[in-house]
Amino acid sequence: MKAATKLLLLTLACGALTVRGADPVAKPADGEKKEFERVEFSLLGAFNYVPPGYETGTPDGKAAPAADAKPKDQIPDFVRKLDARKVAITGFMLPTKFKDGKVTEFLLMKDQSSCCFGVMPRINEWVTVKMSNGGIPPLMDTPITLVGKLKVGELFEEGYLAAIYQLDGERLLETKG
Predict the structure, then answer these.
(1) Within 13 A of 105's CA, how many CA atoms are on the CB side?
(2) What's residue 17's pLDDT?
(3) Inter-residue contact 161 to 125 (CB < 8 Å)
(4) DSSP three-state, residue 156
């Protein structure tokens, strides 16, 4: 086996071990109070999720799941254990609702997914956010870190899967850029 191939396989194996063995909880320094857990999109997106009812849907992907269809449990335990925990997540804002010049609801996405270079994110690469305090300024194109209570599980709107992660946003922790 060529050295380059061995290096590639070693890199992929180490990456898989890092993702599978990842601890989503940031360890606080000695004596420091742990107010929230830092969660990364590398953990939230570390598995394949196929929206229920679409595996055999129409080629255009518009077939909604049957009313009695129940989603298969595709969210692994290492992600499910984050449900109902207070977390901090860093990502990019895509506003969906404004009030008085502030963003009250938005998608927090793994990356910008913009223009010619963006790729549509997978459903486990965004978090729907509803701010509880009246909103935050629009901060697109710069990474932001939000603190809030994370909900893990399928959210359906009008028969369509809208999200698997929701955050009740409490506050903006930081911006980078």
Answers:
(1) 5
(2) 35
(3) no
(4) strand
Residue found under tokens 């486990």: 124
d(CA 40, CA 132): 22
Reported as a single tens digit per residue, the pLDDT across 65-123 is 555 555 568 999 999 999 999 999 999 999 999 999 999 999 999 988 766 666 788 99
Distance CA 30, CA 112 (A): 36
Find residue 127's DSSP bridge partners.
108
3-state DSSP call for residue 162?
strand
DSSP summary character for residue 146:
E
What mean pLDDT comes out for the span 121-134? 93
143-155 per-position pLDDT tens digit: 999 999 999 999 9
Partners of 108 in beta bridges: 93, 127
Q: What are phi and psi of 39, to 5 degrees?
A: -125, 135
The closest of 140, 144, 142, 139 to 167, measured between CA atoms, is: 144
Tabulate helix, strand, coil % of the chain (nearest 5).
20, 35, 45
Tell me which residue has tokens 């799941």: 65
* DSSP, res 90: E
| pTM higher than the cut 0.85 | no
Which of the two residues, 70 and 51, has the higher pLDDT score? 51
